[in-house]
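seq:
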Amino acid sequence: MVSLKELAEQLNYKIFTMVDPEAKISGGYTGDLLSDVMGHGEEDTIFITIQAHKNSVAVASLIGMRAILLCNGRTPADDMISSAEQEKIAILGTEENQFTSSAKIASLLEFK
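struct:
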């Protein structure tokens, strides 16, 4: 497990919002089909996606995910940021694609 702060610092992610920097991340789920994420995502993980809207926050909140990583240089809309702050879900950003981001996070978390 790593904290959100460690994850953002070590992987050089942009921070759009982070209410609880010490929240722990135990894994991740990569996807853009929100119904798939709802069915397979897990609590205390990071949602890796290009879906930069407040519905992504709703899905992450429903599951108990700690953060959303927006890939490919996507930026969140203002309503996404305010929803994330209310739900205490961090939104991070990267220029990298989802494949590269997923691999780096898995490596950081020492998944085999």
